[in-house]
Design brief:
- It comes from Ephemeroptericola cinctiostellae.
- Keywords: Carbohydrate metabolism, Isomerase, Magnesium, Metal-binding, Phosphoprotein.
- This protein has eight helices and six strands; from the N terminus they run βαααααβαβαβαββ.
- By secondary structure, it is an alpha/beta fold.
- It has two domains: 135 residues, HAD superfamily/HAD-like (Rossmann fold), CATH 3.40.50.1000; 66 residues, Orthogonal Bundle (DNA polymerase, domain 1).
- It has a six-stranded parallel sheet with strand order 3-2-1-4-5-6.
- The structure holds 1,6-di-O-phosphono-alpha-D-glucopyranose and magnesium ion.
């Protein structure tokens, strides 16, 4: 019996990818190259340092560990400035309604985000109190596609994985949900999200009664 839904943040609840893109693009340009939107797709759901490594590889640049730390911190400062203006209007359609419907049915909600900025973003969106538990990148050793983040979400809710459903827009995130042993709802293109048990366009299409 399903007791909880564990949500990814970027691409499911809100679109932070556009802000990450601006900040990563600035970093790439500082180093003398460009990234485009197609390349940005590869960074979705991928943690900060892994994203930086992919970008450096893309630009054919190699940096020392200290230089990487410095660039990642600078990118994050720029990103934090960009998300400071976020508010409830940045919620994706149906996100608040889905969270409220789950609570109204007496079920639980969790967040499993690769972003260390996740709690601040939830606060900006005005939905912190709609999550029973939050697992972000600060609390996991192995990021997505490793199942750790979704396993931890279920454990923090005191539930077994078969009582939880994971919701993700990125292939790496869906891998994480499936390897955790959960049912997976994909958000996006069914041709891309082949790991998902079911795919919807967005949370505006989320219908709780289909899953409980
Ligand atoms: C998000 C984004 C990724 C980003 C990662 C780390 O993951 O999709 O592009 O690199 O967080 O973010 P930060 O630099 O803020 O720690 P998710 O899991 O919310 O989709
Ligand atoms: Mg995502």
């Amino acid at each position: 019996m399903i007791q909880a839904f564990i949500f990814d943040l970027d691409g499911v609840i809100t679109d932070t990818a556009k802000f990450h893109f601006i900040a990563w693009q600035k970093l790439a340009q500082r180093l003398g190259f460009d990234i485009d939107h197609e390349f940005n797709e590869k960074l979705k759901g991928v943690g900060r340092m892994d994203s930086l490594n992919l970008i450096l590889q893309h630009g054919g640049i190699s940096l020392t560990e200290a230089e990487k730390e410095n660039e990642a911190a600078r990118k994050n400062d720029e990103y934090v400035e960009l998300i400071a203006d976020m508010n409830a209007s940045d919620l994706l359609p149906g996100a608040r309604e889905a969270l409220e419907a789950i609570h109204a049915a007496g079920l639980k909600t969790g967040l499993a985000s690769a972003s260390k900025n996740a709690p601040a973003i939830l606060a900006r969106l005005g939905i912190s109190d709609l999550f029973d538990t939050v697992v972000d990148a600060r609390f996991v050793i192995n990021g997505k596609p490793d199942p750790e983040i979704f396993l931890k979400g279920a454990a923090q809710l005191n539930l077994s994985v078969t009582e939880c459903i994971g919701i993700e827009d990125a292939v790496a995130g869906l891998q994480s949900i499936k390897d955790a042993g959960m049912y997976a709802i994909g958000i996006g293109d069914p041709a891309v999200l082949t790991l998902a048990d079911t795919v919807i366009d967005g949370l505006h299409q989320f219908d709780l009664k289909h899953y409980i």
